[in-house]
Design a protein that fits this description.
127 residues; globular; mainly alpha
């Protein structure tokens, strides 16, 4: 179950990172993120998407550590805390996407964020 959760989480994080990179370079996919107000993101939101790519990479590292696939030099206690922090952030993203005024964001990102949240909870519960 841990391997499936890790694999699913990594694939979805990778897809999100690719989406945000595309947005950084001007792809007209902005309706899926940041409240969906613009198809092509303005400069400030492009910068936020670049920051999101870095953050998503950090999420992947935490997930790999929790699954035992990568040593991040975290103590077991710190790894557990990081795993639960990741789960909390991803659970909160479900609510953020649920409350989005963008129909496209709710249709695409809500289910994606729900799967990410479930996978992160499985990893947080890992021994």
């Amino acid at each position: 179950m841990i391997a499936a959760a890790l694999g699913t989480l990594l694939v979805l994080l990778g897809l999100l990172a690719l989406l945000h990179l595309a947005l950084v370079f001007g792809a007209p996919l902005g309706r899926l993120v940041w409240g969906g107000a613009e198809a092509v993101l303005p400069a400030a939101k492009r910068f936020a998407s670049l920051a999101a790519v870095i953050l998503l990479g950090g999420f992947a590292l935490i997930a790999l550590d929790r699954a035992g696939s990568l040593e991040l030099f975290l103590s077991p206690a710190a790894s557990r805390i990081a795993g639960w922090a990741l789960a909390a952030v991803l659970v909160l993203s479900v609510f953020q996407n649920l409350l989005s005024s963008s129909r496209a964001e709710r249709r695409v990102m809500l289910p994606l964020s729900a799967v990410l949240a479930l996978c992160s909870i499985v990893l947080a519960l890992a021994p």
